[in-house]
């Protein structure tokens, strides 16, 4: 080892080569370990999607599990209530409706939301951006052309929204 150190430090070129070779080995091992590790379930290139079917929503694509259905239904239900005030609905009624579908933390944030700043529209579908055993990130396009990302969590036998944000694409 001492001989290698002496050789490496004799010139800047040797030092650069030694450091570069060391980084290649370290990143190579990291990539190999990462490829062998199990990854959380994601939708990959075949997302489960709910599409509009006129008066309501269809079901998830074939192969969708009950959990996937719950994630999608919760996201769409929340987006329906959250995106705009219903006809004749007061801001207080809107806050109450979204609070029923949200975690306590999100509900506190929504308490200071002015409903006049919402994107409007109604959901036209839903697609998973990510899904795991306890949560899902669901993209919900709206009839206004805008889209939102909704995080749905599954805890204590409940399906609640923990976050909503504009979707700006990849």
Number of alpha- plus pi-helical segments: 5
What is the architecture of the largest domain at the second tier of CATH? Roll
> Separation of termini?
47 Å
Order of helices and strands: HHEEHHHEEEE
The CATH topology of the largest domain turns out to be: Nuclear Transport Factor 2, Chain: A
- How many strands in all? 6
Estimate nothing, just give the exact number of structural domains.
Answer: 2
Q: Roughly how much helix do the residues carry, as a percent range?
A: 25-40%
Largest sheet: 6 strands, antiparallel
Tell me what the structure shows.
The chain is elongated and about 80 Å long. By secondary structure, it is α+β, with helices and mostly antiparallel strands. It has 5 helices and 6 strands; from the N terminus they run ααββαααββββ. The protein has 2 domains: 35 residues, no CATH class; 118 residues, Roll (Nuclear Transport Factor 2, Chain: A). About 16% of the residues have low confidence. A 6-stranded antiparallel beta sheet has the order 2-1-3-4-5-6.
Question: What key phrases describe this protein's structure?
Answer:
single chain; 170 residues; alpha+beta; Nuclear Transport Factor 2, Chain: A; 2 domains; 6-stranded antiparallel sheet; 6 strands; elongated
How would the blueprint of this fold be written?
Layout: H1 2-8, H2 12-36, E1 49-53, E2 56-57, H3 66-82, H4 91-99, H5 104-110, E3 125-131, E4 135-141, E5 147-155, E6 158-166
Antiparallel strand pairs: 1-2, 1-3, 3-4, 4-5, 5-6
In short:
Helix content is 38%, strand content 23%. The chain is built from five helices and six strands; from the N terminus they run H-H-E-E-H-H-H-E-E-E-E.
């Amino acid at each position: 080892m001492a001989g290698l150190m002496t050789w490496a430090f004799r010139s800047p070129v040797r030092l650069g080569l030694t450091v570069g070779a060391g980084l290649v080995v370290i990143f190579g091992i990291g990539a190999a370990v990462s490829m062998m590790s199990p990854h959380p379930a994601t939708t990959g290139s075949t997302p489960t999607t709910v599409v509009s079917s006129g008066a309501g929503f269809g079901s998830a694509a074939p192969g969708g599990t009950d959990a996937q259905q719950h994630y999608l239904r919760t996201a769409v239900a929340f987006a329906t209530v959250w995106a705009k005030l219903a006809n004749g609905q007061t801001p207080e009624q809107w806050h109450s409706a979204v609070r029923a579908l949200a975690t306590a933390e999100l509900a506190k944030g929504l308490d200071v939301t002015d409903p006049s700043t919402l994107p409007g529209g109604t959901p036209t579908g839903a697609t998973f951006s990510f899904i795991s055993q306890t949560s899902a990130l669901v993209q919900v396009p709206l009839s206004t052309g805008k889209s939102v990302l909704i995080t749905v969590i599954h805890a204590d036998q409940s399906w609640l929204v923990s976050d909503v944000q504009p979707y700006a694409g990849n």
